[in-house]
Each structure stands twice: as C-alpha cells, then as structure tokens.
Specification:
Number of strands: 16
Largest sheet: 8 strands, mixed, barrel
Oligomer: single chain
Helix content: 40-55%
Low-confidence stretches: 2-8, 675-698, 700-709
Radius of gyration: 35 Å
Mean pLDDT: 86
Strand content: 5-15%
Shape: elongated
Strand order of the largest sheet: 8-9-11-12-13-14-15-16
Number of helices: 26
Bound molecules: ligand C2E, magnesium ion
C-alpha cells in the first residue's frame, strides 16, 4: 500500500500537518537507511554487488513497484506491490541494510519512472525502510543475525519468528500510509485503516507468506527464483481484467469520469461517514448552458471533445477525495464527502464555474462555456442520495432561471411537497423496474375510417396505487429530473412497437408525446436517429407530439430542436391546439405536419355553437396551411360526422377507441386494416377498454349528420 496522491500533486502546504508528517517519516527513514548502510562492511558491499542473485532480486523489486496489483473497487493508494515479497525475502536472507537499500532504490526508480512527485517517492521509500527496520528488529530479537556474508534460511521451527516479523512489517507499513492518507483526505486515521483492513490483510498475507519460500529457493538455486513470477503474472492479469470490467461498469466511456452508479455508491459511503461524525455532505449538480448549440452548429465530435475538456477542468478544480461524475449529456455532479457549510460549497461551485469560464480552444475557435450549478447539502436538505440529487436539481434550475450561475437549495422555493417528493423517488425506481407501460390510441382518417396513426400514451402500473394516468406523474417528472429518462423509455418502447407492427405489415405511424424539457435535451435527436436505425424503420414511422403551449412559449429553444428533427424527416404534431396563442406567422414557419385540435373545443361542440365556429375556423386555418387536422376527444358519432363535414381530416377519441394495451392495439389494427370501408357497413364489435372501434365505420357517407347513437 502506498501513499495516495495524484501524479500532478504539488505536495502539501509547508507547515501543514500532512507536510510535517511526511517530513518526519522521510527524515526517520533516511536516518535508518544511513545507519543500516553504515553498518555494512566493504566486503559485504562487494559480495552483494557481485551477486547475480542480488541483481535479480533488485530487478524483481523494481518490477513489483512499477506494477502494483490493483483489484476492482481499489484505488492505486490501496494497491499492494509484489515488490514486498522479494524485499522481505532479502531481509530474511541478507538482513536489513541489503533489503532496505534494495526496496528504497526500487521505490525511487519506479516512482521517478511513473512521474510521481518527489515528496511522494521520498515518503514511500522511507515508509518501506521503517517497516523493514521494524521487522528486522523482531528478527534480531529472535536471535537472527543475517548478513550478506552470512545469509539466513529459515526452516520449519522458524515459522513463528518469520510470521511475527511479517506481521510487524505489515502493521508498520499500513499505519504509516494510513496516517498520510487520513491527513490528506482530512479523514479519521482509525476509519481509514479499518475501511480497507480485511482486504489489505488478505493481500499482504499472500505476498509476505511467499517470502520464506523465495529465500529457500534463493539458497538452493538462483535460476529458479524467476519462476515465482509465473503465479504473480497470473494474479496481475486476473486483477487487471477484473479492474477493467469494474471500471467499465462504473465509468462514463466518453469522459472517463465516474458515472451515476459510482456516484450513488460513493454518496452512500459519504453519507454513512458523515452521519457518524456529524459532518455535512455536499452534492453539486452542474449543467452546461447552451451546450446544445455547440453540438448543433459544430457537430457531435466537437461536442464530445468539449465534454472531455470540461471533465478535465472540473476534475482539476476539486480537492482529492471529491468525486466528479458525469450523469449524462452535459450534466455533471460533484460530490463533496465533507463540506463545512453552504458557503464552502458555493466556493467550490464558483471555482468550478471559473475553471470553465476560460474559453476552450477547439479547431482554431474559442468556445465560451458557462455552467449553472445547484447545491444541496446533507443533512440540511435531504437524507439520501435520491433526494440530494433532486434538490440539487431544483437549485440548478433556479440558477438557470435566475441566471445567477449558482444557487443552493432553499425549501421555500421548492414547489415540491413531501408526498410529491416520495412519488418522485418511486417514479425513478419505476423507470428502472419496468413499471411503466405504453397504451396506444388510434387516430383514424374521416374519409375512409382507416387508421392514420397510433398515439403512445404512458401509464404507470404502480404496485399500490394501481394504473396511474400520465397527469398524475408526467408533470412530476417534468419538475424533477426524470423527463429525459421517461421520454427515452417512451421513445424506445414506442419505436420497438412500431417496428413490430411494421414487420407484420401494419405500417402505422406511432406518435409520442414529448415534454417541453425534452427540447433542451441535446441528445434527443441522436437518440431518435439511433432508435430508428436500430429498429430499421423510416423516420415517418414516428411522429412527435409537442403541445402548442410549449412550442410557443419556448420558441427560441424549441426552434433548434424542432428543426433538427424536421431535417431528420421525423414529422411533428402540434398537440392541444387552440389552447395557446399561436402567432400565425410562426405557425407557418414551423415544420409541423399535423395539428391536433384540443378536446375542450370538441367536447363542447354539441352544446355550444361558438365552439363549433371556433373548430370550423381552426380546421380552415390548418387546411390553408396544408397541414393535417386531427380532432381529439371525439366521443360520439355525431361529433365525428360534424367534423368530417367541416373538413377535418382525422379524429381520435373514445368514439374510435380508448387507449389500449399493446396486444389489444395490435388486434385492433389487424382487424381494422382488414375490415370493410365505412360505406360498406361493419359489425361494430369492440376492442380494448373503452373501445367503440368500429363505430367510426358506421359513419354515414352523406353530408347529413347522423342521428344520435
Ligand atoms: P394528449 O396527448 O392530449 O392525449 C390525449 C388524452 O386524452 C389522453 O389522456 C387520452 O386518454 C384522452 N382521451 C382520449 N380519447 C378521449 C375522449 O374521447 N374523451 C376524453 N375526454 N379524453 C380522451 P391520457 O392518456 O391521460 O394523457 C393525458 C396527457 O398526458 C396527454 O395528453 C399528454 O399530454 C400526456 N402524456 C401522455 N403520455 C405521455 C408521454 O409518454 N410523455 C409525455 N411527455 N406526456 C404524455
Ligand atoms: Mg398527445
Ligand atoms: Mg392533446
């Protein structure tokens, strides 16, 4: 186990407790090694220098130092070095001076090759020297006086002495390192040792237990010593493969930063630790402003490189022990395992923003990147990870809204009640546990009663509350950070269903509702493109429904996303039309292929001549723009017939069919595409929960409105 420190570590501040500790250990190590070497006679030195065995061991110790054994979940700081097998063997065989020189020189050489900071190399060399010195004292006390001229080979009865010496070496080594690590991370020493003790005992026992065997082989035949490399190489390879796998599962491929899974784990540890010591944990959520514009104008490869630079800058703006993770897209989280108060967390946030403020040079261009940061603290704002993240998210949105850059969570400004918050947690889990389902509701053409599309409507099969309507949780997802996950689930499932229909000859367009927040998602378009490719269906097999309100209230943001989707050939539909004030000019400019007249007008049509007039003028307007008009919420045959007479293109509503699960929707489609045309009459059978599927087929073909059913 070696001291934890970054390769770019500039060293502790002179005079700090860590600095003093490193200095004391280094000086003590240097004194011990000087004393030990001074005790060597020149004959001893000549003996060692002329011994091929000594040089072979030196090589093995250097190799061991260069390649510490890192296992999954362990950092370089926790890594054990196989060098101790051979330096401990040297201690048993030749005594302290030979072993200490061997190990110290190897540590310095390997440290320099790996470009560790000089203070770190000096400390590591001293740490080993002191540990070997302590073990040597045990052997001397047991009557062992090995030296280059009088090597010692332990036999059966010496097992106890060697074991005690090894135990002392291990304890001394782990304690020296733990103090440095604890001072470095400002953590408790006992906790630092305890956190990793079983693992360290296991690895060190394995490495040190081999040492006496190495000694026996050294004494018998030097040529056989390298054979010890074979099992070591096997251990290395195995460990490296496991580390690789574990790394992939917990890190983001693009930036190499920890991912959400890793962050959840680390936050859990930090919360336990903080609770035990009465400290605070901080979680910062950072979202880049206008990253989408970079992606759109300069392309995704540039966007990806930019994210790499951002990740690099963020990592170098935090203290060791803090965790910078990428949650997805342009969203990063920073975990502060201990933080004094909100002001200290704000300082970190300001540092992160400052690190990004310097323009990023890319392809001979200077890109200005800004970020908004939300802060949530434990225990002040939330008891667990999910809530911390959710509250950091609320704060981050506030920072974006107010354009302040940084905001800490304030309960008064949070429009989420505790009941809503617990539902948010449940929804997050529901998304991962497959509790969400898609229902499908058909739209049929009024001219021939043939299906023109199927709208995917999400449902939550809640284990306690039963089947929940989107109104009960979609707005909730929009206020937390779940819309992206929800929309991704819906798009993916809807595309899968569309592909399955297309494969079986039911070439129906599947509509998906997307939220306003989705228009800010920089990867939405990519996601859709990838989904279409994966399922081998054309863009026209999908239709995105965006409510008029969203499109009109966020014209600038919506425009970019909407244009990208339109360029991809994905048709767009303007949902709940008539409920917002669309500017006609803007309406004409939008690449919209369908407009859905809001059900509130349709529902009032039978009783309100005013609404009938409104609907007529909406239909005329839509037709003038050469866009398909769909009336939603059509519940009766007479309304459907009236709409057809008014020139409306298609209808959707209980009159045709209510939303159906996928199996019923498939049955409906199969039957519908095979049934006779409206004027030929039909059986009027029903499919699905509220289905009056074939009722549409009973629509009279004439201009006269049908009698009430
Ligand atoms: P919407 O897109 O306008 O969907 C139409 C809603 O009207 C659906 O409610 C549908 O079940 C209901 N409806 C259908 N026929 C009739 C009828 O004849 N009469 C009446 N009164 N209502 C009818 P639902 O499924 O509860 O969805 C409500 C809203 O939730 C949707 O309105 C849509 O804005 C949103 N939503 C649904 N699924 C999703 C989704 O996957 N993502 C997002 N972001 N929003 C969704
Ligand atoms: Mg809709
Ligand atoms: Mg609607």
């Amino acid at each position: 186990m070696q001291e934890a420190s970054d390769t770019r570590d500039k060293g502790p501040r002179p005079g700090s407790p860590l600095w003093l500790y490193l200095a004391v250990v280094t000086v003590a190590g240097a004194l011990v090694i000087a004393w030990a070497v001074a005790g060597l006679r020149s004959a001893d030195l000549r003996l060692l220098a002329g011994s091929p065995l000594w040089w072979m061991l030196a090589l093995l110790v250097v190799c061991g130092e260069l390649r510490p054994i890192i296992t999954p979940g362990k950092s370089v700081a926790d890594a054990a070095a196989a060098s101790i097998t051979f330096s401990f063997a040297a201690l048993i065989y030749w005594g302290l001076p030979a072993a200490a020189v061997l190990q110290a020189a190897a540590t310095l050489i390997a440290g320099t090759v790996m470009r560790h900071a000089p203070h770190r190399n000096a400390f590591n060399a001293a740490q080993y020297t002191l540990s070997l010195g302590a073990a040597a004292a045990v052997l001397t006390a047991a009557g062992v006086h090995a030296g280059p001229a009088s090597p010692w080979v332990p036999t059966g009865p010496h097992v106890a002495q060697v074991a005690i010496a090894a135990a002392v070496f291990f304890c001394c080594n782990i304690a020296l390192v733990a103090v440095a690590v604890a001072l470095h991370a400002r953590a408790s020493i006992i906790r630092t040792i305890r956190a990793d003790l079983p693992y360290q005992v296991l690895v060190n026992v394995a490495l040190l237990a081999v040492a006496p065997l190495v000694v026996v082989v050294m004494h018998t035949s030097a040529a056989l010593v390298p054979l010890f490399l074979v099992p070591l190489i096997a251990v290395y390879t195995n460990a490296a493969m496991s580390v690789n796998r574990a790394h992939q599962a917990t890190h983001d491929e693009l930036t190499g930063l920890p991912n959400r899974k890793f962050l959840v784990l680390r936050t859990g540890q930090a919360l336990t630790e903080a609770a035990a010591r009465g400290r605070r944990v901080g979680l910062l959520l950072l979202d880049l402003d206008r990253f989408k514009e970079v992606n759109d104008t300069l392309g995704h490869p540039v966007g990806d490189r930019l994210l790499g630079v951002v990740a690099h800058r963020l990592v170098h703006s935090v203290r060791p022990g803090d965790v910078v993770a990428r949650l997805g897209g342009d969203e990063f989280a920073v975990l502060l395992p201990t933080v004094r108060d909100a002001a200290a967390a704000r300082e970190v946030a300001a540092r992160l923003r400052a690190a990004l403020a310097e323009p990023i040079r890319m392809d001979a261009m200077n890109l200005d990147i800004e970020a908004s940061v939300g802060i949530a603290l434990h225990p002040d704002h939330a008891p667990d990870f999910e809530l911390l993240l959710q509250r950091a998210d609320v704060a981050m949105y506030l920072a974006k809204e107010r354009r302040t850059g940084v905001e800490a969570y304030v309960a008064d400004q949070d429009r989420n009640s505790p009941a809503r918050l617990s539902l948010i947690g449940e929804l997050r889990r529901a998304l991962h546990e497959g509790q969400l389902e898609l229902y499908f509701q058909p739209k049929i053409a009024l001219a021939d009663a043939q299906p023109v599309g199927m709208e995917a409507l999400v449902r939550w099969r809640h284990p306690v509350r039963g089947l929940m309507a989107p109104e009960q949780f979609v707005p909730l997802s929009e206020r937390s950070h779940l819309t992206r996950d929800l929309t991704r689930y819906v798009i993916d499932t809807a595309l899968g269903q569309a592909a399955s229909w297309w494969r079986s000859g039911l070439q129906v367009q599947v509509a998906v509702n997307i939220s306003g927040g989705d228009l800010f998602d920089p990867v939405l378009a990519d996601l859709i493109a990838a989904g279409l490719r994966r399922h081998s269906i054309p863009p026209s097999a999908l239709l995105l429904e965006i409510t008029e309100r969203v499109l009109m209230s966020e014209p600038a943001h919506a425009a970019g996303c909407v244009d990208t989707l339109a360029r991809m050939g994905v048709p767009l539909s303007l949902d709940d039309f008539g409920t917002a004030y669309s500017s006609l000019v803007r309406l004409k400019r939008l690449p919209v292929s369908e407009i859905k007249i809001d059900s509130s007008f349709i529902g009032r049509m039978p009783h309100s001549p005013d609404d009938e007039v409104i609907v007529q003028s909406l239909i005329d307007l839509v037709r003038a723009l050469a866009i398909r008009s769909v009336a939603e919420g059509v519940e009766t045959a007479e309304v459907a017939a009236a709409l057809r007479d008014m020139g409306c293109d298609a209808v959707q509503g209980w009159f045709v069919s209510g939303p159906m699960d996928a199996a019923s929707a498939t049955a409906w489609l199969t039957e519908r595409t095979g049934v006779p045309r409206p004027h030929e009459g039909c059986s009027g059978r029903t499919v699905g929960e509220h289905t009056r599927a074939d009722a549409a087929a009973a629509l009279p073909t004439g201009t006269a409105r049908p009698a009430a059913r």
